[in-house]
Amino acid sequence: MSSKQGGKAKPLKQPKADKKEYDEIDMANIQKKKEEEKALKELKAKAQQKGSFGGSGLKKSGKK
Asked: Where is this region: Disordered (predicted)?
């Protein structure tokens, strides 16, 4: 007998995760983490605007 099932089999659906109940300490930690990520993003954006550090570019040796 041959199977008519062709192609990739669909994965089984995962049960939905229940929403977690956070207490005040957890909420404070989540908020702190979000603020740190935001500050890090701003620093990355600022660093990309400036370009390379020192401004000297590629260093050349004195040999010719």
From this structure: 1-64
